[in-house]
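--- STAGE predict ---
source: upstream dedup step, 1 unique chain passed
mode: sequence only
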Amino acid sequence: MPEVRGIPFDAPLYHGDREHGSAFLNCQAVQAVFTIASDVERLLPKQLTPAADPAVGVVGIANYGSSIVGPYLEQYSGIEVRDPGGETGFYIPYIYVTTNDAALASGREILGAPKKLAHIALTREGSLIQGTLERPTGKRLLTITAQPDSRLRAAARQMFSTHTNFYSVRHLPPVNQFGKGAATQLVKWCTNRTFRRDAGGEEVLFTGPVSLTYDSPSVIDPVHNLKVGEIMLGTYEEYDSSLQAIDLLSDA
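--- STAGE serialize ---
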C-alpha cells in the first residue's frame, strides 16, 4: 500500500496511505457563496478559467473535530473554475489553519494548499453562528455571520455537491541562483462529504441569512481580493469528509 509521509522520515509530522486518503470527522462549517465583484484572472493559474461570469467565490470556516492529523480549525477562500478537462471545482488562493503543524505541512507539501497559521474561531450565540479569521491576534481579516434557520431546499441543493474538486499550486523555490530544484505544479484534489443525519433522518444542512465582511484589509494576507458582490447562498453543515489527491494538471 503506497505510503504518504512527511519529513523527517523517522519521525514525520504526518503519514497515511494513498488508497484511503484523509479522514475528517465531526466537522462543522459555515460558508458563504457569492459573486466576486473584482478581477480574479490575476489570481488564477493559466490552466484554469472562471466557471461563471461574474466569477463565483466561496469563503468558509470549518471546525474539524477529529482527523488523521488531529483536530483543528480552517478558513478557506475559493474561486469556482473550469479545468482543461472541462470539470469544475474551486481554486484555493488563500487558506489558513489554527496551530496544527501537521495540517499545515501536509496541506502545503502534498497538495500545494497555501496554508498559513492564523487565529480562527467558530462560535454560536443564540440563533447566530459566527466565524472569524485574525492574523496576527487582533488583526481581524474577515467575519462570517450566519443565521441558519431553514433546511436547504432541493433547488439550492443542486449547486451544492457532496463531491467537490479543488485546485492549488505546489511550488518549490530553487535552491541556488541556477534554478536547480525549482518546481511549480498545479494539483487537482477533491473532498467527499457525508452529511450527518439528525434524529429524524434529515441531513444537517441548513441555510439562512449570511453576511461576509473583510474587516481590516491586509497586503500581507489579502483575502479581500475576493471582493463580495451578491451573496448567493449561506450554509451551515455538519459532516464527515475524506480528501484525496487526484492528479498533476501541469508540471512546469
